[in-house]
Amino acid sequence: MFVHGEYVLDRLGDLIISYAKGPWNLACVEQFRQEYRLLSADLRQKPLCDLIVLHGESLMPPDAAAEMRDAVKSAADYGLTNVAFVLIDSTVQNSTRWQFEAIYDTTGISREFFNSIEDALNWLEAKGCNFDKQEFAIPDEVSLW
């Protein structure tokens, strides 16, 4: 199946960083889920945090959203506790926020939406997420978006 959507995953301590540019289809979400699972494998049953930086029109059709909901529930079972979202260059921010709120709604994961990466990192740090903020850098391929 054709993958529609882009993402880059990174890790800093106990923080998984997802840079994503949508919209995404089911194949993209499935691929993302596999890569996320591999990147976070050694953090199972430890407190884990996510920084999710969404570029552009970051929406999913119902089948992809259902797969993402299942992936998030699995991550919560393995220790995901806090998620900070940053929405960049989107004309559908309210719709994007609504879709992600629906995905995370029943997970018990603490989450917030921010306008800047710095504010998101500060919130995650205050929540006790274990990472070195001085080491944070946006990957080159994301800078081109």
Widest sheet, order of strands: 1-2-3-4-5
Average pLDDT level = 92
**CATH overall fold name:** Transcription Regulator spoIIAA
**How far apart are the termini?**
24 Å
Treating each run of at least 4 consecutive H or I residues as one helix, how many helices? 5
**H/E element sequence:** EEHEHEHEHH
Molecular structure report:
The chain has 145 residues and is α/β, with parallel strands linked by helices. The protein has one domain (6-129): STAS domain (Transcription Regulator spoIIAA), CATH 3.30.750. 39% of the residues lie in helices and 25% in strands. It has 5 helices and 5 strands; from the N terminus they run E-E-H-E-H-E-H-E-H-H. The protein has helices spanning 26-39, 62-78, 93-104, 117-126, 140-143, and strands at residues 6-12, 15-21, 48-55, 80-88, 110-114. Strands 1-2-3-4-5 form a 5-stranded mixed beta sheet, sandwiched between helices. Strand 4 (80-88), helix 3 and strand 5 form a beta-alpha-beta unit. Helix 1 runs parallel beside helix 2 (62-78) and helix 2 crosses helix 3 (93-104). The longest helix has 17 residues, at 62-78. The radius of gyration is 14 Å and the shape is globular. It starts with 5 loop residues before the first strand and ends with a helix. The model has no long low-confidence stretch (mean pLDDT 92).
